[in-house]
Structure formats: structure tokens, C-alpha cells
Amino acid sequence: MDKKQAKKFEQLLIERQQEILAQVGASSEDIGKLQSENVADWVDRVSLDDAMNNLMSKESDLAHELENIIIALQKIEKGEYGICEQCNKPISIERLEAVLTARLCIQCKNKLEKEQNRSANQRGPSSIPTEVFEWYD
């Protein structure tokens, strides 16, 4: 990746970082407002709790994305941005444009996802705690 491309990605990452920081501030205000609301009945309370959970989940997702942006910006600074962490080959520009914070090339990402899916689908009796079956005997 040349310096011009790296600068372009750095600018895109900084813009996304600023968007996230603005969203986090707004979400925090919304959470504060929801926490201060008095509700009359349990249906309203459940709805309020659901709204709070959704906002907190969104905040968590944004925090994770912000963390990945910081890592990507550090990589740009070190000249390591766009290099796959698994195979050390360049990540395609198309992939980086689609996922600014990509840390793996598409081949390594696909391989990782297949391994994760395979291990998730290979739940055998040994992965289930024996206490679960004690009541059944």
C-alpha cells in the first residue's frame, strides 16, 4: 500500500471515529433520560428495560468498533495497515474499503469462520456438563 492510499484510509478511519464518538455521546444522553423516567406499570417497565438494553448493546458495539479503529490507526502509523495478521500478505484494497478495520485477508477470514463454524457444530457429549444429565437418571 502506498502512502497516498494509507492517507486515504487514515482519513476514512478518523471520520468514522468522529461519527462513533458523536453517537456514543447521544446514546449516553438517551440512557440517562431513560433511567430517570418513572413508569406506571410493569409493561412500561419491561419496554423501558428493553430500550435500555438495546442502547447499551449499541454502545458496546460502538466501543468495539472504536477500539478496532484505534488499532487500525496505530497500524497506519507503523506502516502495518493492510497486512493480514495471519499470513502477513496484503489485504486487498477492496476488502479494506468494505471493512476499514479488517485485520485478516479474505482467505484467512473465511478459513477462520469455517473453523469457528466447525467447532460450534461439533458439540459432543463431552462439551455438555455432566450435571445437566444428573436429573435425567
Structure, described:
The protein contains five helices and no strands. It has 137 residues and is an all-alpha fold. α1 runs antiparallel to α2. The model has no long low-confidence stretch (mean pLDDT 83). It folds into two domains: 81 residues; 42 residues, no CATH class. Helices cover 71% and strands 0% of the residues.
The helix content, as a percent range, equals: over 70%
The computed structural class is: mainly alpha
Q: Uncertain regions: pLDDT < 50 for 5+ in a row? A: none
- Helices and strands, in order, run as HHHHH
Number of strands: 0
- Give the domain tally: 2
Helical segment count: 5
Mean pLDDT: 83
- Please summarize the sheet with the most strands: none
Shape: flat
What Rg is obtained from the alpha carbons, in whole angstroms?
Answer: 22 Å
Beta-strand content bin: under 5%
Please report the distance between the alpha carbons of the first and last residues: 62 Å
Write the layout of secondary structure elements.
Elements: H1 3-36, H2 42-78, H3 93-98, H4 106-121, H5 131-134
Helix pairs in contact: 1-2
Labels describing this entry:
single chain, 137 residues, mainly alpha, 5 helices
Summarize the structure in short.
By secondary structure, this protein is mainly α.
